[in-house]
User: Which sequence fits this backbone?
């Protein structure tokens, strides 16, 4: 087993355990911190796959902006106390984990066989995750989608202010 | 990590997605449900990036077409990140508005769309 596979297995273990921690933690703040670990390890995985720019934006956007909003909201609404919302019943929990297990089994049974047969290793050319290549692609072939995304972000800003400020 | 096979990434992505699904079903706190949705979005991002690194479309023959095919997955992830940022801002705004109206955030009690 080579070094790369060992590093991947370590990161995958951390990612799955922290995702598990998001669901099983009773305290909302602990779920949020577990999610921070998850996103950060995912960014390390992106760096390992040579996606330099997307790894950095994963850290900036997810652990920086989105988790800050989540923690701010939890603290403002005082949802951190463990007894705020009691635990669901055993039936609901077992149905949920059964659904998740069926999902994994369905994907694994359909995907792993063909992919393991047709596996030829990574075929991406050198330097395709760098900021220069991503920027060139974003501002040539994808420029309309980029502009539409900016309109979407503007609508999001205006909408969230309207929803939060409404008085009646 | 060039010797890691593609199906390992896809299996990791499936595990993350399934844990997120289970969390959406189990949890009653809308903020944690949001976090589980973010988990599912990140699982989709991971499989986009893994496929973009390992595969290209058979239709791409020239080097420039192959390059564009490898970039497509990264572009999808960029736009998923933009949409996730907008979604979280609007969603948390809605949760704050509901909390101000009802002083209660149990998702099982919120069945009506009208305030």
Assistant:
């Amino acid at each position: 087993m080579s070094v790369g596979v060992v590093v991947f297995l370590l990161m995958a273990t951390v990612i799955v355990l922290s995702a598990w921690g998001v669901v099983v933690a009773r305290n909302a703040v602990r779920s949020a911190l577990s999610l921070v670990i998850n996103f950060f390890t995912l960014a390390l995985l992106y760096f390992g796959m040579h996606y330099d720019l997307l790894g950095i934006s994963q850290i900036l956007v997810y652990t920086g902006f989105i988790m800050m909003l989540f923690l701010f909201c939890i603290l403002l609404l005082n949802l951190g106390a463990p007894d705020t919302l009691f635990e669901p019943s055993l039936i609901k929990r077992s149905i949920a984990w059964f659904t998740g297990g069926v999902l994994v089994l369905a994907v694994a049974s359909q995907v792993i066989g063909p992919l393991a047969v047709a596996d030829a290793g990574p075929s991406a050319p050198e330097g395709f995750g760098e900021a220069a290549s991503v920027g060139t692609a974003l501002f040539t072939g994808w420029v309309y989608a980029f502009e539409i995304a900016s309109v979407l972000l503007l609508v999001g800003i205006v909408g969230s202010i309207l929803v939060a400020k409404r008085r009646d | 990590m060039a010797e890691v096979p593609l199906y390992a990434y896809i299996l990791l992505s499936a595990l993350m997605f399934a844990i997120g699904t289970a969390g959406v079903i189990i949890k009653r706190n809308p903020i944690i449900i949001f976090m589980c949705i973010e988990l599912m979005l990140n699982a989709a991002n991971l499989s986009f990036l893994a496929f973009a690194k390992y595969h290209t479309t058979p239709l791409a023959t020239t080097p420039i077409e192959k390059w564009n095919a490898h970039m497509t997955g990264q572009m999808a992830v960029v736009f998923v990140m933009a949409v996730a940022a907008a979604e979280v801002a609007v969603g948390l705004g809605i949760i704050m508005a509901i909390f101000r109206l009802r002083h209660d955030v149990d998702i099982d009690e919120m069945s009506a769309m009208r305030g």
Summary: The longest helix of chain B spans residues 63-102. Chain B has a mean pLDDT of 85. Chain B touches chain A through 72 residues (CB under 8 Å).
